[in-house]
Structure formats: C-alpha cells, structure tokens
Amino acid sequence: MRAPFELKLLATPRAAPELRHRLREHDHDVRLCATELLTNVIDHVGEGTPVTVRVVAGADRGCTRIEVTDPEPRAVPALLAATETWECGRGMALIDALAERWGVDQEPGRKTVWCEVGSHGGSTGARSLHE
Fold first, then answer.
1. What percent of the chain has pLDDT over 90?
2. Which residue of 5, 86, 105, 128 is 20 to 30 Å from 116, comparing CA positions?
3. Which part of the chain is the Histidine kinase/HSP90-like ATPase domain (predicted)?
4. What is the pTM of this model?
C-alpha cells in the first residue's frame, strides 16, 4: 500500500499538470479524478483558491480515496446532464462515471469533495453525498 499523498496548492490551471505529475505512480483514473476535482474548484470557487489534495490508496474496500478540500462550504458540486455539445459541466459526470462513490463533507469554513476509485474503475451506481 502506498503512503498517503497530500499536497497544498493554489487552484490554478497550471496546478493541474503539476498534480498529475505528482500522482504519476497512481493509475489514470486516480489522476483524472484528482485533476477534475481540482478543476471544479477553479471553475466554481475561483482561480487561486487554496486547496489541499489528499490521495489514500486502499482507504476503503481496496478503493483509492481522492479528496480536495477548499475554504468555500457553500459551493457544492452538482451532477449535471452535460450534452455532447457543452463545453463545461462534465467534471462531475466524469467523477460519477469513474468512481465507485463520491460525496461532499461540509464543515464550518470548508468543504471536502471526495471520490473513491476501485482497482477496475467504473461506477457501481452507489452514491453518497454529504456523508
């Protein structure tokens, strides 16, 4: 099992490739989910927002848990039915498709959006928001 990964950074477009590089030992689905969660902060909370990214392999049922914490508890992600022609709104749809489950933990002054990716990826249809 890998040691837990934690990185504090500012949510900027340049941070996404850095995050992917830092997670190079993890599989594609983990890297994709982590960068999508980071991009969600950029798009819906604001560029330059301080975030903490955590990745814990084998966290629950052999899944890898990816968490992105930011200081805006009210900006909760939503799963949209993005169409093929939409240029945005696909981030949480990707998370929903790749993750076993995902959710949001809200606390005073911050929130953590998380997902759990299995060893084979893909959704089981189980969702758990606000656990």
1. 65
2. 86
3. 28-114
4. 0.83
